[in-house]
Each structure stands twice: as C-alpha cells, then as structure tokens.
Amino acid sequence: MRFLIDQKEFNEKEIRTVWKAILTGDQSTKLEFYKILEALQMKLRNDDIALIIDLFGKDIDPASFMRQEIECVSKLTQYCQRQTTAVTNAAVLFFDIACQAKPYSSEIVETAMDKLINLLLQQDRALKIEYISRCYDRLEKGESSFQCVRLISKVLEQISKEKMGALISGQEIALDLISKYDLITLII
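Above: the chain sequence. Below: its structure as tokens.
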C-alpha cells in the first residue's frame, strides 16, 4: 500500500479493496492501516481522502467506532485546503457523530465534537454559519439539544474572535439566529 501511495497509484479501486480487507480483519490490522494513512496523508489526493472519510462514516458501526478512527479522519484533513470535499466530509462525519445521528459512545461523541470545533476553526465564516444553521434545524426537531447549543456557542465564540472588517459580528449573527429560530423557545 505504501508503494501505491508513493507512486500516486492508490486510487478508488485500491482504496475500496484495502478498506474491505481491513473491515474483515482484526483491530490491530485496522489500527496499522490508520497509522499508514496518517503517515502518508500528504501524498494522498483530496478526492482519495474524501472517499476514505466517507467510508468511515458509512462502513464503521457506531457501536464499534474507536477514538483512533476519529483521530485518523482528523489527521487526514490536517493539511487539506479549506472548503475541500475532504474537509466537508470530515465536518459532516464529526457533526453526525457529535449530534448523535446514530448511537455512538459518549467518548466518541465528545471527541467528534472537539474535532469538529477544531476543524471549523480553520474554515471560512460561511461554513461556520452553515453548521450553526444545522444545529438550529436539529433543535427545531428536538434533536441533540445539548450538543447543538454547545456547538453553536463554540462556533459563535470563534466568529467573535475573527477580524470583522465589513462582516457582521458574532453577536449580530447570534441575535439574528435567536430571533429567526426562536432559540429560547426551542431550548425550553
């Protein structure tokens, strides 16, 4: 696998073949695969990283999801450019885990929340606001209240620390969202 990655020949077919093999292997095989991905992530193309992250979300059972898998996804996106498909896929995966779209362990939920917040810190304001809106949508449905309020708080804190220029402030965004979604009623 290292050779294929070094030669830029580790494409979708090979990724899916190796992925299928590690899913049927033991835990030590999975962990070794994750270490190789992390070590060679700079040599992977953005589309390949996006595919691998997508496979984590689709193929790993929530009950057996490990912290190392969250760490691997985070490290795979560490040097990706902003707003790429890989970063978007990682944000979606972390958000779904953090907001418990499926039943994950509390350790995995907390780790995913931390990784999502760190990932959003590096992204544009538009993506941060998109995730605030996603949280409000979940709040309206009565889903993941605590996690969503926590994420909104952290993202607004990030926005408030950004240089404003002609952009509206984090406080203005918060007030607009509170009135738009009637946050107080949603929380109560």
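The first helix runs from residue 2 to 6.
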